[in-house]
Fold each of these.
Amino acid sequence: MYSSLTNAELLAEVVAANAFPLFISTLLGALALALALAWSWRVARPAGDPTPQRILAVGMSCMLPAGLLFLSLAGALSHRGALVTFDEALAAALQATQPAETLRAAALVTHFGDTATLTGLCVALAALLLVRGHHLLAAGWIAAVAGNSLLNVTLKSMFERVRPIHEHGYTIETSWSFPSGHASGTVVAYGMAAYVLMRLLPARWHLPLLLLAVTIAMSTAASRVVLQVHFASDVLAGISSGTLWLSLCVMSQELLRRRPDGAPRPDPFPLDGDTQ
């Protein structure tokens, strides 16, 4: 039965047949990575506020792997080799195997990354920050969400990859496919929202906010593949580009909120979690 299939096509068959366990494993891995990063930032750092050098080091340690992953995916896409074969085989296998209940659930989850949802979140949180007098945070928040949207549109127009065929009717997409805007949008929007709220709320909220942001981003990204509106590499590219942009935005905020001597700038309207 499988004698005529390539290794990439065989792998796609295995992934499609084990889609849910693989998603859970990937989600747990992402949560573990987020916990490791949080531990290295909060626990393993020296006493006191991080220096600009440490902020740059942590930021670059996130940006470089994300950038390299994106470039690798873009290069593989341009060569139309095994990655493209895997993408197309996985989309076809999912189309043939996913039940209506799974597609319906994925269609609900994917709304976390809709333009209307992210726009509403952006406006609501920006208004809250401005009312509270957190102007630097508000500017950084708006720049993160709006900048990622512009970046994604630019990248899509550069690669002009056609989406996989999806005729199930649960969702319809007509724009270019690479990289996934839902994947990058949820990484940036919910990741930056978690960062902003961690600046404003007591420490007991920090870990739940981080884990919630990762869960929403990964679930939304997976829903795009299950719904066959994106190839798997589109979603990976969206996650990597979103991670790079999010890291740059958070790093910029951390540097800008400090005086030239490295000390935190005072916050004229502090809340419980950030007395600076």
Note: Residues 52-79 form the longest helix (28 residues).
Amino acid sequence: EELYATIEPLARFVPKLPFVLAHTSVEHSSDAVHKPLRERWLEGDPVVRRGYEEITRLAQEGKKALLAQDWPRLGWLMNENHAIQRDLGGSGEANERMIRIALEHGALGAKLAGAGGGGTIIALHLQPEEMIAALRAAGCSAIFYPCITDGVRLEGEGDI
């Protein structure tokens, strides 16, 4: 069976993540985005295959940039990733509007997040508070600023 994706926690290696997630309030079915792309992938569409091979390479480079905290490089990689997703039909009008606003307000990179088609974007900005204000002024309904925490841990001995 072909492995399509892996998940690797990296937050503990980076003390502060300068990302902002913004939700556009556009509701959509992820199936409307993913089903046609999956069908094209399974049919061997060379454009889709090349696009996702490049996205894989960009993700690998993005991991290196994130761990090095090379924010300009990571921003560039995010923009490249989004361009491929957009060209494959994975982005929606609301995504594009919010990404444009983020870049116009100093984001080093911005791309769709989640299923695509219009719901959520992620922007890389060294002053996240400024990005939050710009996106809020543009009408984003929900804005999240991720922070790193240790999460839940067990202290002491015994049964839970």
Note: Helices lie at 30-42, 46-68, 71-87, 93-104, 128-137.
Amino acid sequence: MQPFSSAEERQERQELIRLLRETPPELIRAMGEQQTLEAVKWIAGSVPFYGRLLAEQGIQPEEIDSIAAFRSRLPILDKHNTFARHTIQELSAGGHLDNIRTVLTSSGHSGVFSFGVNTRENLLRSARSIDTGLQYLFGVDDHPTLLINCLPMGVKVNTNATFLAETSVRDDMVFALVNKFGPEFEEIIIIGEGSFIKKIIEDGQEQHGIDWPQLRVHIITGEEGIAENYRTYLGGLLGVTDFDAPNGKIIGSSMGVAELDLNLFHETRETIRIRRLAHRDADLRKALFGEDHGFCPMFFVYYPHRCYVETLDGEIGELVISMLSPEMKIPLLRYRAGDIGKVFEYREVVATLAAQGVDLQPDLKLPFVGVYGRGKMLPTSDGPIYPEAVKEALYAHADIAATITGNFRLRMEQGSAVLDIQLREGRRSAPRAVERFLAALADYSRVMPQQVAFGDYLSFPYNMSVDWERKFAYL
């Protein structure tokens, strides 16, 4: 099968990967900071609402001549003071919607819808970025690849380097594609939300006879972070015996924000290895990530030439992201992503690993970001219970993980913490499931729920009507 991309496109990707491998991390950072300062000027001059906002606050764009000034003087944006307050024209470069090709809505989970508006040029830029990542991780230029996009809500994957199928959350379509087209390709990449991917892999094996270990299948999860034990469980179903194998199957994750970009951050083989080491080693976990809740944040790389990333309120705080591409139709500076995170310089991570006895120098000289989620938890009189801890415990035992959908609800009832867990359709709970789950949860949480119930699929009372289309509310 012939490559899907032109020779020029493949060469461009290889050159960018080479530069990211060979350029000193300090230079990558400095170039990104320079692009950040330049973005202030052109966004203030071309986006009506932003020019007015700076003028109202007495800020001249040329006064933002350092990253210190950028961080101390420019206002913080969010959904409420942008999309809820202004028209799309006012938010758009040039003050018009000329040349737009696509619109992507956010989930609306916060109560306010935001929008990612793309021109043809921006879609091409997005495809170049995604395809570079796909080449680096999976070698798609060298291996004909079937990419199946299972993301919900019409989320598109812009790629010109793979054979693309978009199924949304239709599992029957996924099974048909794997069975009919899988043998024609050297590898398959499945992209989707973690719980839906779990359903695909389990049902594909149990009900459709798909022999996943015999196929070269990679997984990319989106929508929300994954537990490290989830990765281990899914790896068992896919036949992954060594997560550190240089050319092995990858179960990875990426993070995007609809109104910014769908691939802001992503894992690499090295970040996966680092997170798995920290998952098993409390000292390394604390050295890397600070306060130890017993579980690891997601750990990604990001590209300083595409976005500037900072945190509010100290080293660990809410992530604030600035998009830098002049091709963006709605360019947003210092935009609150809603997630708690921490930014790491490349050499900082290498030094921390070395101090903990880990000899690992990531291939790409990019900075990192740890993403802790939304910081939501169930407050109890004894302390908080985090959904991330529950996720780790649910996947700690493969036989328990095999019985659940991944959905659960933490709540307070008459002063007691209650945890309801949804079983898969037609499944019963595993032997001693509650006892073994609580024993596993003790490794990830200082506080235990007083009541735990594994409930029948159809009688589970939460979010049953949405059928994988919306983010699940764990609290």
Note: The domain at 378-455 is CATH 3.30.300 (GMP Synthetase; Chain A, domain 3).
